[in-house]
């Protein structure tokens, strides 16, 4: 009896020891995973956490390098010496990109740079050659044609446009460089080169003279550039855009006539028309079709005249670059999705097609128009015949493959345009207003 009891106690002790050892091992493993998780989160999130102190430190480094003659720009003097640029707050950091709110001589602006430090950008090879030439008995000067040539190559490479024999810059840059018969300092060339390595800057700088649907660049200092401040949309807001802010004071009437108060609800169809105008403009008025691959409210804003503006164009590509991006290896159609730009997988070749399957308008209808004109948001007006017809047109637009049936997509866009104009007529009671409205297209071409 005693032996059996001792044996039972011994077995129980062994089991308890084993369970205790197992619990210790599991606890150690859980602690290890937790600590490594914290390190991962810290490295990937908190290391790029947006703070005012860090933003001010970054701008101070920019000013220090300006004082040392390393970088320059038309914004530097006001930012670093005259104090006419007032820092407001940090907006966001994302994958190295720094975005801050400020005011320049009382005008709200946004300061942007793809990388934090000026030294992180690739140096201009011409400056290295200049150093070599200078060490052999004198500094060799760069002519305006040298600047035009190399800047144009960088623009073409950044935007994904073919490099042809016509190597001229957009008229604003090219004309300035040709008129100024002078050499350019190291700081000027290095600053220009750092800016040209930022796709968004290049895109906005080239297009701002060709379309009113992109944010305007107002100035730069080294690798940081200033764009006009506009309130962006919000995915979490059922109204997407805070249109109420634009109704606080009379604004210029984009449809002609005197200034007048427009309610937020009346603004929606007008802003929707501006979206349609932007789509048509991006598709038809440049040398190549312009694709927007990240369509969401946060990437658009509205000016006082109700013009829709693309304010974040990191994922905007002209047709040549779009084809290069889409044409990848695949095993199914899911492998051919590049954010909002998708194509089909040719399973015989295991290769994605270079042609985009959907379109800018199709995605805008799905992500912008459908929430805007939903029965939930419209309330009692949702059952009105014109609203029902508009909802159907939006639904058809969101489901059609615009890249495959361009003619059908044009008809759907035309139907949306007519319905929106009719809705404006109905809301304002001015039957002549919509009839006189025409899309404000800027007939230009990117002829590099």
Automatic annotation (TrEMBL):
Compartments it resides in: Endoplasmic reticulum membrane
Cited SMART domains: PIP49_N
InterPro entries membership: FAM69_kinase_dom, FAM69_N, Kinase-like_dom_sf
Membrane topology annotation: Single-pass type II membrane protein
Cited SUPFAM superfamilies: Protein kinase-like (PK-like)
Signal peptide start-end: none
Keywords in alphabetical order: Disulfide bond, Endoplasmic reticulum, Membrane, Signal-anchor, Transmembrane, Transmembrane helix
UniProt KW Endoplasmic reticulum keyword: yes
Keyword Nucleotidyltransferase assigned: no
CC terms in the record's Gene Ontology section: endoplasmic reticulum membrane
Regions crossing the membrane: 21-41
Main location: endoplasmic reticulum
Sequence ranges assigned to domain FAM69 N-terminal in this UniProt record: 17-175
Family: Belongs to the DIPK family.
Name of this protein: Divergent protein kinase domain 1C
């Amino acid at each position: 009896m005693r032996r059996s009891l001792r044996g039972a106690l011994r077995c129980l002790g062994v089991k308890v020891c084993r369970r205790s050892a197992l619990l210790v091992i599991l606890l150690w493993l859980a602690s290890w995973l937790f600590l490594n998780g914290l390190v991962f989160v810290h490295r990937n999130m908190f290391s790029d956490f947006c703070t005012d102190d860090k933003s001010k430190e970054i701008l101070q480094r920019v000013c220090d390098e300006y004082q040392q003659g390393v970088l320059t720009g038309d914004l530097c003097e006001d930012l670093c010496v005259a104090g006419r640029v007032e820092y407001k707050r940090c907006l966001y950091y994302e994958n190295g990109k720094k975005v801050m709110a400020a005011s320049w001589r009382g005008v709200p602006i946004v300061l942007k740079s793809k990388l934090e430090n000026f030294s992180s950008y690739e140096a201009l090879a011409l400056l290295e050659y200049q150093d070599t030439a200078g060490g052999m008995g004198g500094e060799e000067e760069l002519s305006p044609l040298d600047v035009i040539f190399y800047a144009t190559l960088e623009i073409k490479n950044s935007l994904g446009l073919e490099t042809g024999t016509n190597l001229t810059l957009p008229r604003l840059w090219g004309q300035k460089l040709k008129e100024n018969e002078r050499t350019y300092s190291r700081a000027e060339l290095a600053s220009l080169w750092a800016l040209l390595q930022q796709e968004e800057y290049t895109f906005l700088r080239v297009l701002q003279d060709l379309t009113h649907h992109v944010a305007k660049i107002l100035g730069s200092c080294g690798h940081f550039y200033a764009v006009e401040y506009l309130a962006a949309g919000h995915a979490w807001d059922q109204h997407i855009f805070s249109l109420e802010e634009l109704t606080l004071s009379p604004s210029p009437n984009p449809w002609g006539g005197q200034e007048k108060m427009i309610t937020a609800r009346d603004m929606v169809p007008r802003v929707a028309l501006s979206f349609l105008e932007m789509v048509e403009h991006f598709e038809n008025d440049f040398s190549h079709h312009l694709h927007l691959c990240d369509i969401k409210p946060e990437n658009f804003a509205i000016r006082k005249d109700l013009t829709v503006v693309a304010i974040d164009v990191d994922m905007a590509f002209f047709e040549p670059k779009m084809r290069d991006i889409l044409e990848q290896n695949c095993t199914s159609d899911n492998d051919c999705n590049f954010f909002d730009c998708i194509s089909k997988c040719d399973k015989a070749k295991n290769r994605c097609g270079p042609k985009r399957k959907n379109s800018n308008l199709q995605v805008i209808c799905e992500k912008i128009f459908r929430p805007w004109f939903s029965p939930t948001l419209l309330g009692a007006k949702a059952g009105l015949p014109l609203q029902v017809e508009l909802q159907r047109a939006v639904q058809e637009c969101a489901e059609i493959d615009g890249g495959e049936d361009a003619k059908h997509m044009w008809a759907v866009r035309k139907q949306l345009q007519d319905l929106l104009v009719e809705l404006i007529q109905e809301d304002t009671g001015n039957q002549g207003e919509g009839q006189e409205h025409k899309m404000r297209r800027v007939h230009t071409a990117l002829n590099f």
